Amino acid sequence: MLKRLFVCFFLASAFLCGCASPVSSVEATTDTTVKSTTFPAPFSLEDAVFLGDSNIAHLSSYGLLPEEQIWTGSQRYLTLEPDVCHKYIVYPDTGTEMTVCDAVSLKKPKFLVITLGTDGALGLDREGVRLSYVSLIESIRNASSDTKILIQSIFPIRPAILNGRFDSVDAVNQKFDLVNLWLAEIADEYGIVYLDTRSVLTDKHGMLREEYNTDHLDGYHLNRAGLEAVLEYILENAK
Prior knowledge:
The longest helix has 22 residues. The chain is globular, with a radius of gyration of 17 Å. Helices cover 37% and strands 12% of the residues. α1 runs parallel beside α7 and α3 packs parallel to α4. The strands form two sheets. The protein has a five-stranded parallel sheet with strand order 2-1-5-6-7, sandwiched between helices. The protein has a two-stranded antiparallel sheet with strand order 3-4. It contains seven helices and seven strands; from the N terminus they run αβαβββαβαβαβαα. It is an alpha/beta fold. It has one domain: 3-Layer(aba) Sandwich (Rossmann fold).
């Protein structure tokens, strides 16, 4: 699969030229299917910066992306909250800490893929999620109007064997599905891409596929194969 991933990566480059909070009450929903938005311009993985939590940090840990393309906190995670754009990340080009907004202003990345919510979303209602993402989107656009934003879905979880942090897997996944619907609505409203990578990570029970969990078996961190599946999905759908 890794060989296939990097074949996709190089073909795309050549031809396109470039955390546990209490679970809040879950609103009823009958359809958690989300359709990805068509991207308005050629996407290049090598021109993208990934802003996100520990799963995103592991893209560089597994050698799937250079460290320079990963923005996350000093402890290798980032929490979704209303003032997230003012939270500090480690700016990998210099190794210094700065706010997300300052990093965008300095780097002005061509593409910015945002993956937030495993940490933080459980404690937020619809208004809180919207405030968090809208403030981030608007701040990014103010800092770099040419940066194309992509919002990635929150990934599913599964029962932990070791080092678990979530008490009710079904309730957590139900809330994440609901938040993903809200994220898709926000993306549609702002004319940006929503990437439903959850769809390639989920088993028939609505949980993270067992083969994609790390050897730590914590129920929510992706292993190399899971992260490869995420990048393959992005390469195939962000166009």
